[in-house]
Fold:
Amino acid sequence: MGVEVMPQELRHIWSVEHHERHNAANIFHVYFTTESGLTYLSGFPEQLPAHISTAYGVDATKEDAPDKILDIILHRFHIPEPLHPQNMENDVAFKAGMKKTIVRHPELPPGTVVPTTLYTAEEDEEAIEANDLRLKEVKKNLLYVPYTEVDPKKLRHSAAQMYHVTKEVEATDPRNPLEIFREKCSIPEEVVDFERRAIKQTRLWVHGKDPDPSLRSRDRLGPNREVREKRPRNQAGTRQVQNFRFNIV
Structure:
């Protein structure tokens, strides 16, 4: 039986907040403390879980879907951009033989051999496998966990102090910090459909194939997610989706 190797650093999630905004997308704030005792905030829009679910095959109907999605979101921030020239050869998926020859890219010349990513992959399974490899590599060095799942005896001194402060907070709100995310995590089917079409269309563009008319859409979801608004052809956001939809992995 092998010996379990603990991550070099645990990042302890002690609070998750959901903020509703009138003139912008609602956002999640995740507060965490490192083992050295430093506290940080990670924020992302509430639409991101739908993108992650679509891109990486997380079944939104499963009870543990929010936990899996948040796990991907937090750890993917630490993945070195695979398509950056300095990172390609050291990318864990690239070294495992997951490579693609691309035809179009905003910054790379045609015919460049690059690591398999969400948008350079031709099939969903390839993108999911590459993402899993990168996440496992990240987790060798750090791991995000809720304080409620950590034995305080295993914490370093500064983090242990933060643990006890957190326990005082839990006296008034004893919920696991992930429960807020579980409660507010929303994956509307219309957002999933929009993301699925955008991913497929970008993959066609990357590999030099003609756009699929059935996937084309100028619609975008309105703030209330029930109204679709027409996106002008000259809007900067449209050009960004068409030409630079490479959010690394």
